[in-house]
Amino acid sequence: NAGVTQTPKFRILKIGQSMTLQCTQDMNHNYMYWYRQDPGMGLKLIYYSVGAGITDKGEVPNGYNVSRSTTEDFPLRLELAAPSQTSVYFCASRGGQNNEKLFFGSGTQLSVL
Amino acid sequence: EDKVVQSPLSLVVHEGDTVTLNCSYEVTNFRSLLWYKQEKKAPTFLFMLTSSGIEKKSGRLSSILDKKELFSILNITATQTGDSAVYLCAVYSGAGSYQLTFGKGTKLSVIP
Q: What is the average per-residue pLDDT within B44-57?
């Protein structure tokens, strides 16, 4: 039972490059989330999705895009990477509105230099 | 804007001590409060609290919610070095409870 799987685990980007962080879950969860975590700052919500084809902005969406074409996958796209996007990124999922326990992936450490 | 505030931000204790971590919140339409433990990687779930005054307990860890005073505490008794971690408090709010707002966390260090 894999749970929530994120790839890659580490990545270094140059300013202005683009990349996609992959997230897939095998629990048939409807709700999926992307968070970023900066040192000492807790987790900030970037985007979330309540089902395939439905996405919405969180607290810090600027510089990011998402799509949700299937229940399993929720990729996060960074366009024109900036040093301010250096962070640890976590993908998470939960079953639905009445199932509030959030399951996290193991994270992606991203550095933009 | 929803707010979740944890205190203290960091704490150093000796093995065997008892610790209390605090979480206060100001949110619209509170739905539930969750505690997570984060070691080096992903946060792992500890407790979810929805009703006031009910204590959730798992081994040496316990938590209680006060919906009137808008706070929760996480207690750890007989601490061990394996309890060293960042403890995160998070609150679901709003009609759809889609978004989970996290506090900054309390970094607990347990020394032998």
A: 88
